[in-house]
Design brief:
Elements: H1 3-11, E1 16-24, H2 35-41, H3 44-52, E2 57-62, H4 78-92, E3 97-102, H5 106-114, H6 116-132, E4 141-144, H7 154-171, E5 176-180, H8 187-191, E6 201-207, H9 211-214, H10 241-244, H11 250-261, H12 266-283, E7 286-292, H13 301-317, E8 321-324, E9 334-335, E10 342-343, H14 345-350
Parallel strand pairs: 1-2, 1-8, 2-3, 3-4, 4-5, 5-6, 6-7, 7-8
Antiparallel strand pairs: 9-10
Length: 358
Amino acid sequence: MDQSNLARARAEHLRHGINLSEWFAQVYDPRGYTKEHFQAWNTAQDIALIKALGFDHVRLSVNPQPMFRPRQADELPAEYLSQLDAAVKMILDTSLAVMIDIHPDSDFKEKLAKESDFTEQFADFWRGLAHHYSNLDPNLVFFEILNEPEARDPYRWYGVESRVAVAIREGAPNHTIIATGARYSDDDDLLSIEPLHDSNVIYTFHFYDPHVFTHQGATWGENYWHFVKALPYPSTPENVQASIAAIPEPAKRLAAARYGMDRWNAARMDEEFDQVSAWAKRWNVAVICNEFGVFRKEARPEDRAAWISDVRKSLEKHGIGWTMWDYSGGFGVVTKPNGQPIVDELTVKALGRTVPHY
């Protein structure tokens, strides 16, 4: 099979998925990345629930830093790797596909953006990791080069990504690679690059537009987001007024008011994804959206569900597979108030999935 056709065929295993965050990356436990955390954060019960909810794949965020040995990056620590192996096996045993998403902290990505020697080491790391998993089913295991590169120079990032893709291919000749654009993997970042010199690649982008809605109440990113509460969706110039009144800075209040002026709705989503589809058609490549979602803290549940539903439906209309952010974190499809998953039926319905009734 032609390699570009192979990538498109394998992308069919990535139609509707969920991100597994805060398990092997973004670990906020003061004890850090421990065996106890790995074995407790997500269990076989969680993976079985994901399957029962009708998802076909997961994106497993993996922070490379706890197993990254400077200048020996291809030598992966066996004890740590055994925990990751157990998680990957648990996922595959449920017949879910898995994207192994390398998801480091910002300081790691900053080095990639500046230091060629560090890029060489990162390529060593990926060659070793890809080789380690090269015996697994290439229809179900995918290698994602880097989450949200945070590289301000897209040309620099293209060079880094190209170099690392070669190393992955050396480690795993038959597996499909997932590549992305610079900065935060937004759709405009994707449209700014040309495909790699490897046709067995799927391209991904993330979608959180407009951030003032999807990240309302957040204490990272733009400072003014933490003032925003109950911002509605769809938006009009009139219906945003009450929510933006709490923003003290005039310029930031204007930025939020523009969300209303732009009248974000289902048609607006279609216009975004029309451009992504045109890019994919031009280059004859497969494209997925492996992050989108709304922070739960301050968004009204019905507005959050409406945004998720509109994005999901538009992606499907354009033939783009999706992976929602996330399973049980701040954007979650389940909550775990007492450590046990409670399914948010409104979110499940917005995703076009069904809640299992045992």
